[in-house]
């Protein structure tokens, strides 16, 4: 290939994020195409038996098999690494595949994991149900309480894990402080950065060892493809992630990687617009008589506003608010929407709402949801790319039906 993604990543360090999202990591075939090529192939041919041997042995860095190396996927990985400021990246078939690999890779039977209790439902299942099956104990803590993190640490603690802002109540955790706690104990910190996006928060720069994304969300951002990505130092990837992904196979398809590459080109434009709309929605609903509670990281009344100001460059594309009147009122509100779509996804070109109590966190008991602040009336709103006036008209009209 005429271009080396690692070389492009080095050059991209001097570029602004918008430029990295268009150019970083580009590989060109001998045909010299301008758009990234889609290498929809399972395997790769070798010119000789000797070349095949050296390719598999390691000295020849060429591609082997699309389960663990593919030119289109490599471009996506290199571009994400350049954007995040990471030494290395590995793409996966979904966000949960990325999270699971990042958590499973560093641990062995007898180890211990500490995680913030405010997590996406599937993440809690991996922490609470899956890891213990293999002898890895886990403890959930209030992520906002640094004392709780310290108290939960054990001699065998190997991984700390958090989302910030969290799903769905947008709690913001002091990443740098938790990283210090992890490193003092010889553990690593893994951060799910989906709700902040790479544009508004940089966990690696704050001390995290690994960042994970569901690329399904803002990175594709248009409701088309599933994907995930793990970003970290080259050593973290080689020690904990590379062989796990190569041998177990949760690979990102070349087609999905190509879609993600094209999505990255417009990520800045989309996230800036979505964030502006989310802020408008938050300000408009904050004093509404039918809204019992509203949470948005860009507002001064956010419970962790000082942490937000310290570690985030922008708010979020998400707003959480509780409709007064519980489940029945929340259902009336959602059913009255005409523009905003009811679904369980987020980070889309279309504005979306969901009721976490009946979707993403329905597996939890009512008591567990109450501890997390997930009431039956809680709505998670994800801003899209529509004109904000049209979105606001739809939301306010739906509230009139409550």
UniProtKB/TrEMBL annotation:
GO terms for cellular component: cytoplasm. Keywords: Amino-acid biosynthesis, Methionine biosynthesis, Pyridoxal phosphate, Transferase. CDD domains: CGS_like. InterPro entries: Cys/Met-Metab_PyrdxlP-dep_enz (IPR000277), O-succ-hSer_sulfhydrylase (IPR006234), PyrdxlP-dep_Trfase (IPR015424), PyrdxlP-dep_Trfase_major (IPR015421), PyrdxlP-dep_Trfase_small (IPR015422). Its cofactor is pyridoxal 5'-phosphate. Pfam families: Cys_Met_Meta_PP. Gene3D superfamilies: Aspartate Aminotransferase, domain 1, Type I PLP-dependent aspartate aminotransferase-like (Major domain). One of its GO terms (biological process) is 'de novo' L-methionine biosynthetic process. Transmembrane segments: none annotated. The modification N6-(pyridoxal phosphate)lysine is found at residue 217. The keyword Amino-acid biosynthesis applies. Pathway: Amino-acid biosynthesis; L-methionine biosynthesis via de novo pathway; L-homocysteine from O-succinyl-L-homoserine: step 1/1. It catalyses: O-succinyl-L-homoserine + hydrogen sulfide = L-homocysteine + succinate. Its EC number is 2.5.1.-. Belongs to the trans-sulfuration enzymes family. MetZ subfamily. Catalyzes the formation of L-homocysteine from O-succinyl-L-homoserine (OSHS) and hydrogen sulfide. This is O-succinylhomoserine sulfhydrylase. The lineage of its organism: Bacteria, Pseudomonadati, Pseudomonadota, Alphaproteobacteria, Hyphomicrobiales. The gene is metZ.
């Amino acid at each position: 290939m005429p271009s080396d993604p690692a070389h492009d990543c080095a050059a991209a360090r001097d570029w602004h994020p918008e430029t990295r999202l268009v150019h970083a990591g580009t590989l060109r075939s001998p045909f010299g195409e301008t758009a990234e090529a889609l290498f929809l192939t399972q395997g790769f041919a070798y010119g000789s038996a000797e070349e095949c041997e050296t390719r598999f042995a390691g000295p020849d860095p060429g591609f082997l098999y699309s389960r663990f190396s593919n030119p289109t996927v490599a471009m996506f990985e290199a571009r994400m690494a350049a954007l995040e400021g990471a030494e290395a990246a590995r793409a996966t078939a979904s966000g949960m595949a990325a999270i699971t690999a990042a958590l499973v890779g560093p641990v062995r039977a007898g180890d211990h994991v500490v995680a913030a209790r405010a997590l996406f439902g599937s993440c809690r299942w991996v922490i609470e149900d899956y890891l213990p099956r293999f002898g890895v104990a886990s403890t959930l803590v209030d992520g906002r309480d640094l004392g709780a993190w310290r108290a939960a640490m054990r001699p065998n603690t190997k991984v700390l894990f958090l989302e910030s802002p969290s799903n769905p109540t947008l709690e913001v955790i002091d990443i740098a402080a938790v990283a210090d706690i992890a490193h003092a104990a010889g553990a690593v910190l893994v951060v799910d950065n989906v709700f902040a996006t790479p544009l508004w928060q940089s966990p690696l720069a704050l001390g995290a060892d690994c960042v994970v994304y569901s690329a399904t969300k803002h990175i594709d951002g248009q409701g088309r493809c599933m994907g995930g990505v793990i970003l970290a130092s080259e050593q973290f990837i080689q020690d904990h992630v590379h062989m796990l992904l190569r041998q177990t196979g949760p690979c990102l398809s070349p087609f999905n990687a190509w879609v993600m590459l094209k999505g990255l080109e417009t990520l800045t434009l989309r996230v800036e617009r979505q964030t502006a709309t989310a802020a408008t929605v938050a300000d408009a609903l904050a004093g509404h008589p039918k809204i019992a509670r509203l949470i948005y990281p860009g507002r001064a009344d956010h419970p962790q506003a000082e942490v937000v100001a310290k570690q985030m460059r922008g708010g979020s594309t998400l707003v959480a608010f509780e409709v007064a009147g519980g489940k029945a009122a929340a259902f009336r509100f959602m059913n009255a929407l005409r523009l905003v779509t009811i679904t369980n996804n987020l980070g889309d070109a279309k504005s979306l709402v969901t009721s976490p109590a009946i979707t993403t966190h329905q597996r939890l008991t009512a008591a567990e949801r109450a501890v997390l602040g997930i009431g039956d009336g809680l709505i998670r709103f994800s801003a899209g790319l529509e004109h904000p006036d049209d979105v606001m008209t739809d939301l306010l009209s739906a509230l009139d039906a409550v």
